[in-house]
Amino acid sequence: xxxxxxxxxxxxxxxxxxxxxxxxxxxxxxxxxxxxxxxxxxxxxxxxxxxxxxxxxxxxxxxxxxxxxxxxxxxxxxxxxxxxxxxxxxxxxxxxxxxxxxxxxx
Length: 106
Fold this sequence. Notes:
There is one protein chain. Helix content is 61%, strand content 0%. The chain is an all-alpha fold. Helix 3 packs across helix 5.
């Protein structure tokens, strides 16, 4: 039994592994406007632009209207596909209106 297991391990060791690098494994998504934008960054930008009160008026979900926080909202949005879709749609519809980040020139 042990010799059979050793033989299997030797065969597995001889198998060629894929030559893909980690960067090759993440396929490009040219048609996805949300590619590279984390849910946290997306939510932070929406809150900075609209504020919690207006965001809760636009998308009426409890995590935006009752004691809102980025952490609790992220937890809810990651578990609730319909709510995440609404937030992503709002982001895409309004991202052109966002203020560019402030830069400091020294």
